[in-house]
Amino acid sequence: MSFIALDTEFVWQRTYYANLGLVQVAMSADFDDARLPSAPPAALAFPAKTPEHRAVRLLDPLRCDPAAVAAVLRDAQVVKILHDAGQDLQHLGRWCGASPVNVFDTRIAAGFCGMASTVSLRQLLKDVAGVELEKTETRTDWMRRPLSPEQLEYAADDVAYLGGVMDWLLAKAKAFGTCDWMLEEMRVLDDPARYAEGRVADAWRRVKIPVRAFRAPRQLVRLRELAAWREETARCRNLPRSWVVEDKVLVDAALNPPSHPDAISKQDLPRPFAPAFFETLAMAETLPEEDVPDLGDTATTTVRDAATGLLKTLAAVAAEIHVDAALLGSRADAVRFCQNPDDPAHPLNRGWRAEVAGKLARNALKPEGTLL
Q: What angle do helix axes 274-284 and 217-237 make, rounded to 10 degrees?
């Protein structure tokens, strides 16, 4: 099956949405390269110093029709290889309007090959391909034109070797007996919901909060409404969230609502946003308290201790099967499992995780050690 390897370069400092500056595509020998632009201004010429570089196209999203990229992203007969795919696919989806299918994430795949599932691309290429990426262009303004040959070569390196890396990872997983689990995990990446914009009503989950400080339902209602207002404002004006208002201001207002606009400084709450901020705060006082956010901090000491033990069990299982323990579950996953081990929606009760660790996980919660 043919493949393309993908990466993006973007600028994301002064806006809510990233500004896409470059789309890098490396194509397999059997991919129909006529499907993608090859000539300026849609494609940027660069010095191809290696055979791998000759299979790379650097597309200029400022001048390129995104329809061709969208068609390839939707094509289930073409594997899309990325490293840490989520953010790149979100940016590509916003640019070309397509949700990808048949995605292979080399970062996740590494976790099924005795490596960390959080490995950097730089480290993975060094370990697998013997290639050392340069770090010279990490501060490049990818929206500026023209880009230098050095900048373009740097960008091409990010995709040029990913096809070989995928082949290596698949072979390694087959040798370890983890390939089926790896491919099952990759199918999850085809879910369009992973790349969709989140609901503004859930924006409070991004706010850094002192969980134990929120003791009253009304405080949680205020936080939810203020965070939703900030999210909507940031999106509409394409501004970073912190440029509208910082997390700390949201938290302070939710815990101890100010009685007057002057109670918050202009630095903490820019005056153009102050009227809507206080309108939202007042509206939050009128809403019912029944439907409040779940902070997820209801675990007892017993549950937390059980979760610690469960994580040790999962780590032992993972070491035996050459899988990164982080792929079996996080601490939050362990806590939820200890609270309700029979939840059919829990990852440890579904798919490959249930196969390799589900029964052992439930058994770890039973003091008598009997199998379920």
A: 150
3-195 fold? Nucleotidyltransferase; domain 5 (3.30.420)
pLDDT digits (tens, 9 = 90+) for 310-330: 999 999 999 999 999 999 999
Nearest to 251 by CA among 295, 291, 303: 295
| Gyration radius from the chain CA atoms | 24
pTM of the model: 0.92
For residue 109, how far is the Cα from the chain centroid?
A: 15
Buried b (16+ CB within 10 A) or exposed e, 65-98: ebebbbebbebeebbbbbbbbeebbbbbbebbeb
**CA-to-CA distance for 160 and 134, rounded, in angstroms?**
14
Could you tell me the two tokens for 16?
Answer: 């809510």
d(CA 227, CA 224): 5
Phi and psi at 3, nearest 5°, equal -145, 160
Q: What is the pLDDT of residue 139?
A: 82
Measure the CA angle with vertex 128, ends 132 and 52; round to 5°.
65
Q: How far is CA 279 from CA 225, 276, 287, in A?
A: 10, 5, 13
| pLDDT(342) > 90 | yes
Alpha helices in the chain (DSSP H): 67-74, 85-96, 106-110, 121-129, 149-160, 162-176, 179-187, 217-237, 241-244, 247-255, 274-284, 301-321, 325-328, 331-339, 351-353, 359-364
What CATH number does the domain located at 200-284 have?
Answer: 1.10.150.80
Handedness of CA 6, 7, 10, 16 (dihedral sign): positive
Give the β-pairing of 79-82 and 103-105: parallel
d(Cα 186, Cα 3) in Å, to the nearest integer?
Answer: 15
Collapse the DSSP code of 297 into the 3-class scheme (helix H, G, I; strand E, B; otherwise coil) and give the result: coil
